[in-house]
Write a structure and sequence with these properties.
5 helices; 160 residues; alpha+beta; globular; Aminopeptidase
């Protein structure tokens, strides 16, 4: 980590959703089901992949039990969402993103660990997270933090 690059963690505040959505759309361009679909089939009912990704991320943020923010110098540098399934004591990390200008400095690992620590503090016993096969960097990170692959999912799409 570079000097002055310390990540300060906190929960999301009201009014920050739009900034988070812009960051998510920016960093998920290479690893987005929505982008894969639009690249192959064209705009979805006239909408680009960015709209579909922002809508999905907005729903995830809205349903999340916890949205953690990582700040550097007062700027949002990273985020992650956590949704609890209390019946099975599973915390699912939905979206995790690090702004492009802060990538490659360990902030993704820091956010992942913070999410896991939060789940433990909230009494959760298990954690899950998804990664696309086209995102080997995320897969390596998750495996290095103790996650084990349990299944692969094939997403299919067709115009009607």
């Amino acid at each position: 980590m570079a000097p002055g690059d310390d990540l300060h963690l906190r929960e999301m505040k009201a009014g920050e959703v739009e900034e988070l959505l812009r960051m998510i759309v920016d960093v998920f361009e290479e690893v987005s089901v929505a982008k894969n679909t639009v690249d192959r089939f064209g705009p979805l009912n006239g909408h680009g992949w960015e709209v579909a990704k922002a809508d999905a991320a907005g729903e995830d943020i809205g349903r999340a039990d916890v949205v953690l923010i990582g700040e550097i110098g007062g700027r949002i540098a990273a985020m992650t969402t956590i949704k609890y399934d209390r019946k099975f004591s599973i915390g699912h990390i939905g979206h995790m993103a690090v702004a492009r200008e802060y990538q490659g400095r360990g902030h993704g690992r820091r956010m992942l660990r913070a999410a896991i620590d939060r789940m433990r503090a909230d009494g959760i016993r298990y954690s899950s997270i998804d990664a696309l096969e086209q995102n080997p960097r995320a897969e390596r990170l998750y495996k290095s933090e103790g996650f084990t692959e349990v299944a692969r999912k094939i997403m299919m799409f067709r115009p009607l």
